[in-house]
Amino acid sequence: MPHSKQQSLFREDEYQFVQQCHDWLSQSSDEYRPILTPFLNPREQYILKMVGQPIEDLNIFFDGGSVEAESQRAIITPEYFSKDNLDFEMTLFQIDYPIKFTTLSHPQILGALLGLGLQRKAIGDILNDEHIWQVMVDKRIFTYIQQNFVKVGRTTVKVTALPLNKMIDTSKAWEEQFLLVSSLRLDTLVAASYHLSRVVAKQMIESGQVRLNWTVVEKPDSLITINDIVSVHHYGRFQLKGLDGRTKKDKIKAIENIIRR
């Protein structure tokens, strides 16, 4: 369980990850060496920063291949380490497939990778620009992927490693949006973000069409907090980036980044 002062910052279902953060920080401090985490989603990155903030003799560095990367690995180090000398152990690869005859999708690619027995935490961002698909992974599993990742659905594929500086730029995909909402409930934010009725948003959540930080959530009254990413089937996804107080009518002023499909 989180330390008492931090407990109010996190949801109950996050306590296990909070404890993992404490373990990583303690290990780096006790053993005087860098600790490399698996890929973390933006909410997990935020939690690690919050847990590590009070510790003065440790630094936390993040990298996912680019500044805009959603999934990033962290390295926790004693303060005398420089980020320039750290290896985040990532490999970027591109998927080669017959683009004239078929199309691929994010769920298909992720499903095919997980179908190989890979852990989700070993896979970073899956990036797309028209017909081009790239994936960031833990470099320790790339050889296995190269040998075994040969099908996405019925489509034959092969992979080619790329330099990290060839990573697709996704920064233009996100738009900033300002909302006035009555609460930070999941159904309220889904409805406001995509101009849906609360009834439709509630039905989508209850039918498993909405994911919170990549996990299906079927409770419309789930509360959203800073850096959460919400994915809405057929509509896109959004990330709560900040709160800017309340209006005179007691509406919450929320700032989010959003992608519309």
UniProtKB/TrEMBL annotation:
The keyword Transcription does not apply. InterPro entries: Nucleotide-bd_a/b_plait_sf (IPR012677), RqcP2_N (IPR048443), RqcP2_RBD (IPR040591), S4_RNA-bd (IPR002942), S4_RNA-bd_sf (IPR036986). The keyword RNA-binding applies. It comes from the Bacteria. Keywords: RNA-binding. GO terms for molecular function: RNA binding. This is RNA-binding S4 domain-containing protein. SUPFAM superfamilies: Alpha-L RNA-binding motif (SSF55174). Residues 184-241 form the RNA-binding S4 domain. Pfam families: S4 (PF01479), YlmH_1st (PF21278), YlmH_RBD (PF17774). SMART domains: S4. It comes from Leuconostoc fallax.
